[in-house]
Amino acid sequence: MDKFIIEGGYSLRGAVKISGSKNAALPIMAATLLLDKDCVLNNIPHLNDTLVMNKLVNILGGKVSFEGNTVRTANKKIKEFKAPYDLVKTMRASVYVMGALLGRFNKAEVALPGGCIIGERPINLHLMGFEKLGAKITIEHGYIKARAKKLRGADIYLDTVSVGATANILMAAVYAQGETIIRNAAQEPHIVDLSNFLNKMGAKISGQGTNTIKLTGVTSLKGGAYSVISDYIEAGTFMVAAAITNGKIELQNAPADNLEAIKDNLKDTGSEVKIKNKLIIVKGSKIPKPSKIDTAPYPGFPTDMQAQWMALMSVSSGTSIINETIWEKRFMHVPELNRMGADIATKGNTAVVKGVKGLSGAPVMVSDLRAGASLVLAGLRAKGTTEISRIYHLDRGYEKIEKKLEALGAKIRRFK
Ligand code: UD1
């Protein structure tokens, strides 16, 4: 298994180009199953997760090629309607093909995704939405089956804000007769991007980016080209990299509009943040100030930045409080950060982070994607050598992370 060795203590300086958004690319790649016309997707990050989605669409009978950051799809003929357990267990976002297959063919079968390290991750809201649209759902032998004679628009209220349920219901409802309303919908940039993609292909969606999304069913979609948005979580991670190393990083191609929560919190802790169109420049401070954050659905502080933020707060000048409100088990990075000299205690969904003077390099293990990012950030700050194992989690969601960090002056090497 690959690992990273980081020699810490260097300030990062220079420019980095932010890649396409993983969490936009995945549902959009799945949504190409709704199209019987060809489609070209640009700015798709080359990651393990997007490769898995690529493979899944191919297994279903679609024709997908993935070269550089461009995905070309020709999904006129789909012959399989079942997403197998082998793929679903490696990537939960595989469940997105369910909405797309159901939407176009009135049938879909997907292995029931299990829990995962950060929480239970139920999909009850996705299924409730499909049922409201007229599908019959059955669960047998570890697979969920959805079947419909005809899908009809419906008024659907999500009692918890869910990115996955919002995206899956959107895809299922594109061809449903009449109007669909999704209330308490997720407002994340990737939901807006999926809606914009579908609209470019001919769907009639409005309200994306607010908590009420409306769709009017259409009878056909066209093909065409689309470019996915940049990744605001990758951008946020590099912003914290500048802050934690007391460096100065210029982020190019960054989704500045989606980074309000990170930007404001970074400023409050003493970093300078300047935004000029698609450029974000972050200059760290020697010792960051402590902060209090609660993770929340967009536009709140993203849970996907909580672990990285905790690494930064571990070297602050005081005590920080971090409340994780989305995932019940998302503190797996805490014991690893403590192995590097951090002073973090957790109780329930709250972490109390007492800032320490310095971190020291140590062997640590990655439990999940963003926990991995937090350990890399801690390793960049720590004195001495940090050896990070199980970095395959990072390869799921950060494109060429070590190359990008090296170009900024980090001493990081991948060992196979
Ligand atoms: C997506 C992101 C993930 C991020 C999360 C929250 C992708 C591929 N993944 O995950 O990185 O951490 O949004 O921003 O985009 N819930 C239910 N029932 C459901 C669905 C969700 O109760 O049917 C709950 C979950 O347990 C969780 C909350 O809703 O507490 C948010 O989950 P959701 O937004 O659905 O997360 P994902 O789409 O899985």
Features:
26% strand; alpha/beta; elongated; UDP-n-acetylglucosamine1-carboxyvinyl-transferase, Chain; 24 strands; binds uridine-diphosphate-N-acetylglucosamine; 416 residues; 4-stranded mixed β-sheet
Characterize the structure shown.
It contains 14 helices and 24 strands. The mean pLDDT is 97. Helix 1 (22-31) runs parallel beside helix 4 (96-105). It is elongated. The longest helix has 13 residues, at 232-244. Helix 12 (369-381) links the parallel strand 22 and strand 23. With 416 residues, it is α/β, with parallel strands linked by helices. The N and C termini lie close together (6 Å). The strands form 6 sheets. The protein has a 4-stranded mixed β-sheet with strand order 22-23-1-24. The protein has a 4-stranded mixed β-sheet with strand order 2-15-17-16. A 4-stranded mixed β-sheet has the order 4-5-3-14, covered by helices on one side. The protein folds into 2 domains: 3-19 and 230-415, Alpha-beta prism (UDP-n-acetylglucosamine1-carboxyvinyl-transferase, Chain), CATH 3.65.10; 22-227, Enolpyruvate transferase domain (UDP-n-acetylglucosamine1-carboxyvinyl-transferase, Chain, Alpha-beta prism). The site of uridine-diphosphate-N-acetylglucosamine has 20 residues, from helix 1, helix 5 and helix 6.
